[in-house]
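ligand=adenosine-5'-diphosphate
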Amino acid sequence: MNPWFVLPLASGLVCLGFGVLLLVRGGSAATSRSGGFLLLGGAWWGLFEALWTLAPDAGTALLLLRLSTPGWVFIGPLCLELLLAETPRGPEQLRRLRPLAWGTAATALACAWTTDWVHVGVEPVPWGWAWRVGPLYAPWYVFTVVTATTGILAALRRLRVTASPAEQRQRRWFLVAVSVPLILASASDALLPLFGVHVPRVGVASFAILGAVITASIRRFGWSVVAPGSLVGVIFDAMPEGVALVEPGGSIRVANPGLAALLSRPGARLMGTRVADFLPGLDLQVDSEIRECETELLRAGDTRLPVSVSTTPLRDKRGSHLGLVLVIRDLTEVVALRTRLLTSARLAAVGELAAGIAHEINNPLAYINANLRALRDQWLTVAGTWPSESGKAKILEVFEEGLDMLDESLEGVERTAAIVRDVRSFSHAGTGVRERIDPEFLIERALRMANPHLCSRARVVRESNVAVEIECVRRELEQVLLNLLINAAQALDGHGTIRVRMARRGEELEIAVADDGCGIDPDALDRIFDPFFTTKPVGEGTGLGLSISHEIVRRHGGRLEVSSERGRGSEFRLLLPVAAD
Ligand code: ADP
C-alpha cells in the first residue's frame, strides 16, 4: 500500500472538519458559505486523491482522478465569491463576472468528465499516479488563477477603506488563507504538471492550511466579519436593556444577559421564567400594536426598579402569533431627573410666591405689632392710675380692649404660621406616596397659597356639586392647581374673575380653572406644554409650570386640557380618575 495516501486523506478530513464548522456556525453568511464550500471541495478532492494514490491500475486511477474534479474545478469562482463577500461594496463589474466564472468552471467540469481535454491519462510516480494534461488544462488553470487573483486584488483595494482595524486585520488573514492554496496548490498540482514535471502534490494539504488560517482568524477576531448575522447575537448580548422573547403563554423563550442584570440575577438563564413573576400586572395580550408603559420591575431581594417596557408582537410569515418581544429599560436616572425637575419647578414657583408671601406676612405682623404696642401703652396708663376708684373702672376697660387685641394678634400669629407652613411643605420634595383625598381640600390649599397673587386683582368664584375622592400625591396636585391659579391671575388685565369649577364626568373628576384674561395665541397654544416655553418677561416666567403639571397629571392617570380665545380668556381642565368606592 502506497503510504502517500495518508497526506491527502488527512488533509481531506481536516478540510471536512473546518468546512462543516464554517457552514454550521456561520449560518447563512455569504463569507462562511463560500469558505465552507471551498473546504468541502478540498475534502472531496482529498478523499479521491487518497483513493487514486492507492489505485491498482491506470484506468481506475484516471476514473478516480476525474471523479475528484468537482473538488477543485470550482476553486476560482469560490475564491472570488469568498473575497467579494468580504468586500461588501466591491466593484460592480466583478459581481457581474460571477455567472461567467461559474459557467466556465461548470464547462470545465463537464469537459473533464466527458472528454480527454483536461486529463489525457495517468502515469505511475513514487507517490501514486501523476496526470498528463490535455489542451483545456492550461486555459482552466489560467482562468482559476485570474478569477482568484482578481478577487484578491479587489479585496486588497477595499481593505484600505474598510471598517474597523480589527476587521481589517481579519480580512488580511483571509487574504493570506486564500493565497496559500493558490500559490502552493497551483505550483505542485497545476503549473508543474503543465510542463510535464511531477512532484509530490500538496494541493489538498494547502486547502487544509486555508481552513486552519480561517478558523484561527475566527478564534482571534470573532465571527462578526465572517458572519455579520452573528453580530446580532453579539449586540443582543451586549445591550444594557433587557430583551426577551415571550411565548404566548407568558414564559420567556430567550432573554439576553441585560435582563438577568436588571433582575439582579447576573448570569441567570431565564428560559421558562414567567414574566408575571417580575412584571406583575403587565398586559401580555398579543395584538397588533407596539405598546409602551412605565412600571416597576421586581428584582431579586424584593427590591423594585422603575422601568419602561415596550411590547412588540411577533408573527411568522403567515401571520400566526409567535409571542411578544419585550424591551425593558432601567428608568432610575430618568426618575431621578424628573424628581429634580419637579423640585426645581417647585422652587421656581416658591420664588414667584415669595413677594406675595412677604406682603401677606407683613399684614398680620403689622397689626400684631400695633396691637402689642397699644397694649403696652394702655397698661402703662393703668399702672399710673392705680389704685384710685376711677382707676378700677379704667382697668376693666383696658382689659376688655386688651382681650380683643390679644385675640386679633393670636389670629394674626396663626395666619402667619399657616402661610409659613404651606410654603415649607410645598417647597420640600414629596415622598410620592398617594393618598385618598377630597379635591375640595386641594383647591382650598392651592387658593390659600395663591392668595397673595389673587387678592389684589381677581375675584375668585367657586362652583362645585360633587362629593368624590381622588387618589393622588397631595403636594403634586397642589402644585398643578397653584400653577394654574397663578397663570390665570397673571393673565388678568388689571382686574378680572377666576372661576374654579369642579364636576364629575363619568369616572373622571374635572377641575377647571377659567379666567377672563388675555387668552392664548393660537400659535402658542400648541407649545404651552413644552418645557421652557414662556411668553412672560425674564424673572416672571420659567416656562416649566405647565410642562411639569402635564407630566404630574399624566402620572396620575389623568390629562390636562386647555381651551382659550385671544382677548376672552382661557380655561384649563384637569381630568383625574375618581377613586374607587
Ligand atoms: P410660565 O408661567 O412660567 O410662563 P407655564 O408653563 O406655566 O410657564 O406657562 C407657559 C405659557 O403658557 C405662559 O408663558 C403663557 O404664555 C401661557 N399661559 C399659561 N396659562 C395661561 C392663561 N391662563 N392665560 C394666558 N396664557 C397662559
